[in-house]
Amino acid sequence: MSTANHVIVIGAGSTGAALAHDLALRGIHVTVLERAGVASGSTGHNQAQLHSGARYAVNDPESARECIQENWILRRILPEGLELNDGLFVAIDDVGMAYRSKFLEACAECEIPTKELKIAEALSLEPLLNPNILAAIQIPDGVFDPYRLCLSFLATAANHGADIRTFCEVTHINIVNRRVTYRSRITGKDDVLDADAIINAAGPWSAQVADLGGISVAVEPSAGAMITIDQRVCQMVINLLDSPADGDIIVPQRLTSVLGTTSWKVENPDNILVPEESIE
């Protein structure tokens, strides 16, 4: 039976959870279908960084502008779920110093606030930095707990009538009738839902979900390797002042530090083969 103003959101990662939150606050009935647990996909395995966009300002200003806009929104609506500790872009050689002007200009064009620190200031904020650094630029990065972020959005959605169904895998989508068939991975039973709209929020799995409805979506998933160490070596997010590359960032996460990241293209996000050089 069709329900008026009903939207099905496929995926309970950061995108799906935030969509459920937003739609529910608008008085729309939402059903979230997630094939595993909350934040079990790419959201739960990300670097947990609230990007300022500065990392992308030079090479991808469009993404940089989106980052800083979303940064301000999240600071306003979910302050209790964020650690607003800012970040530093640090130059350690002449290459970084040559990149500095380009970086500052790009951040200004993308409306990303920057503040150049004296070396003594940077070392007072982050005593474990190399004392021979040549420059340090402060930007509004932050960190968050991906699981808590999703739960916060979903809790608000549920309080406004949303139905959150985890371990429910979508098996077919009828685009014409706006009908979704899914299977409970707990009971093994199939069920059908009708809706006014269906939103594909499956992240790297978006192409597979779209294919269930006979739609082709071009997605090029990428994976990355990160290392978590059991001590917090910095208070701020530390970036290398240079063009983005592998292994150039440290993200503090509670009492740990996440070192990373690398990046390579993958064919199937359910079967990621980690290259040996990425581990090295």
Account of the 3D structure:
The chain has 7 helices and 19 strands. Helix 1 packs parallel to helix 5 (146-159). The chain folds into 2 domains: 6-43 and 147-211, FAD/NAD(P)-binding domain; 49-144 and 221-279, 2-Layer Sandwich (D-Amino Acid Oxidase, Chain A, domain 2), CATH 3.30.9. The chain is elongated and about 60 Å long. It has a 7-stranded mixed beta sheet with strand order 6-7-5-16-17-18-15. It has a 4-stranded parallel beta sheet with strand order 9-2-1-13. A 3-stranded antiparallel beta sheet has the order 3-8-4. It has 280 residues and is α+β, with helices and mostly antiparallel strands.
The helicity comes to: 25-40%
Per CATH, the superfamily of the largest domain is D-Amino Acid Oxidase, subunit A, domain 2
Rg calc: 21 Å
Multimeric organization: single chain
Can you tell me the overall shape? elongated
Low-confidence stretches: none
CATH T-level topology of the largest domain: D-Amino Acid Oxidase, Chain A, domain 2
Largest sheet: 7 strands, mixed
Count the domains: 2
**Level-2 CATH architecture of the largest domain:** 2-Layer Sandwich
